[in-house]
């Protein structure tokens, strides 16, 4: 792996910034002799629930596992008679859809908003009016790139159709909709602490969160073999426990999250002004949303391979970029053709695929480095 002068993301910089606290947290767990669940996990679950302002947080091994647990806790899983349908977007990490399938449900993929990156309520409404065979069970919006989805309209559709709402908050720690944090709207919220996330572990880790005490009990049982008490499986569950090492690291990092998000927002604001006037679409801001910029995603016009040429130009200047994601789920080899024919083709999703480019963004990216990225992009268009 080549090291770029300015990487697209830099989890190591986050670790080094907090090395003393993180090393101490790791040493504490190692010395405790307790390496599965226990006090460290409980302490982080309590701190995370308090931070989110929600009743219960239940750790999991990853964000993908958190989504599977959430669906299963809602009774959404395999069915011999009528498959359970879960409505989500194709423009997401493949993890969202993989988790739905692993729960035993059938994903129904809808489009993103024109010019935006999150679930289009109009596309969702159309899919709910004319669903594929099965029982509509849940809506699973993704707050992609750190921007909340159109929650008011989506919640209204969930209520009208009697569906569960599960939020995919893997990229939206600290984002808010009308001042209320993402993750506090749905029946259950699912977080990933993949190392590059706004709140990142130093390995795999995830979390579910809910205000419903019964769902919290189900989540706890399901994550450990369906154990109602030790060695007594009240239902069939899985093994996806939050690692106490990761819990201790995350507990050390949580108090910094608000400041880290602020630093990401500052980088985004610098890009906004530095890139203004270029033939690019910059990320929009919705008045009702607090965007926490897990990614800063620009759109280059789809013709003449502009996006790819800009990416190559930046790479030759030692600047890393990303494409989140190069191929939407419904066009992936593993999924193509399996979720219906998409006669309308999810046009906004497919358009985004050829235009999106994620610029470097992380809390430690300073003004000089940000300005260098801006200058190189300006040079490309000169
Ligand atoms: C939108 C989204 N959903 C789900 C996940 C899955 O999380 P994890 O990698 O922790 O399994 C991720 C992260 O990779 C993600 O970005």
Largest sheet: 7 strands, mixed
The total beta strand count reads: 14
Integer-rounded radius of gyration: 21 Å
Beta percentage is: 5-15%
The low-confidence parts are none
* Bound chemical compounds: pyridoxal-5'-phosphate
Q: Enumerate how many helices there are, as a single number.
A: 13
H/E element order: HHHEHEHEHEHEEEEEHEEHHEEHHEH
If you average the pLDDT, what whole number results?
95
Helix proportion of residues, in percent?
25-40%
User: What structural category arises from helix and sheet content?
Assistant: alpha/beta
Q: If strands are numbered along the chain, what order do they take across the biggest sheet?
A: 1-9-8-5-4-2-3
- Shape descriptor: globular
End-to-end Cα distance: 31 Å
Short description:
The protein is an alpha/beta fold.
Descriptive notes:
With 382 residues, this protein is α/β, with parallel strands linked by helices. The chain is built from 13 helices and 14 strands. The protein has helices at 11-17, 19-32, 39-52, 63-73, 94-103, 121-129, 151-161, 213-222, 244-253, 257-275, 306-316, 347-355, 367-381; strands at residues 56-60, 84-89, 106-110, 135-139, 164-168, 176-177, 180-181, 188-192, 206-210, 227-229, 232-233, 289-290, 296-299, 356-359. The strands form 4 sheets. The protein has a 7-stranded mixed sheet with strand order 1-9-8-5-4-2-3, with helices on both faces. A 3-stranded antiparallel sheet has the order 7-6-12, with no helix packed on it. β10 (227-229) and β11 form a beta hairpin. α4 (63-73) packs across α8. The relative contact order is 0.17. It binds pyridoxal-5'-phosphate.
